[in-house]
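Need tokens for this chain, all 105 residues.
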Amino acid sequence: MDTNPIQGQQQEIYKLVRENNKMLHAMRRNAFWGGIIKFLLYTGLFIVLPFWLYMTYLAPMLQSTMQAVNQIQGTGAKAQAQFGSFQEMLKQFETMFPKIGKTNQ
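Here are the structure tokens for all 105 residues:
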């Protein structure tokens, strides 16, 4: 009679150990998949989101700014060319009237 209660306790302990083992494996599996999901989420947050924001908002503004800079540079080049032709005109004028360009000495 002594062996029967001990075997019942051992079987109960064995059931509890198996149930505990199943729970631990499930927790480990859930932690693994949760880690992968977190990695994908943070990857999307720190890599994909800034790229999307750049392409959506910053790229058009940067493009319009670059067009304005190019237009300003073109205007500056035109003004410089006009100034060069103005200097050339002054030299021609001095050659036509040599005494006007020189001061009295």
